[in-house]
Amino acid sequence: VREIDMTTSFLGAPSSLPLYFTATALAKLAHPDGEVGIVRAAHKAGVPYMLPTLSSYTLDEMLAARTPGQQLFAQLYVNPERSRSEEYVKKLEDAGVKAL
């Protein structure tokens, strides 16, 4: 075997490997860059990242860390106050996040 192509896609998002970085809560406990660092690392690795609901950074901060054209997924823990969940989902939609 001379060449192996591991590229694939998940829900229309291209991936350099048959995997994605899944949501993990409070990543800043493991490293100061937390989820913002994971957004950047996912882009560098060419794999999708699922933004966590329970994160060390705000959704706006994680979205701002993306590279133009970078596709992200999102996790959702439904808040008992449904309007907060609706606002969160709207923000994701407005930012172009395609999978929830």
Major sheet summary line: 2 strands, antiparallel
Strand content: 5-15%
Low-confidence stretches: none
End-to-end gap: 37 Å
Report mean pLDDT, rounded to a whole number. 95
Outline type: globular
Strand order of the largest sheet: 1-2
Helix % is 25-40%
The tally of beta strands, per DSSP, is 4
Radius of gyration: 14 Å
Helix count equals 3
The helix-and-strand class reads alpha+beta
Structure description:
The chain is an alpha+beta fold and 100 residues long. 31% of the residues lie in helices and 12% in strands. It contains three helices and four strands, in the order E-E-H-E-H-E-H. The strands form two sheets. It has a two-stranded antiparallel ribbon. The chain has a two-stranded parallel sheet with strand order 3-4. A hairpin with a 2-residue loop joins strand 1 (8-10) and strand 2. The radius of gyration is 14 Å and the shape is globular. The mean pLDDT is 95.
List keywords for this structure.
3 helices; alpha+beta; 100 residues; 12% strand; two-stranded parallel ribbon
Quick take:
By secondary structure, this protein is α+β, with helices and mostly antiparallel strands.
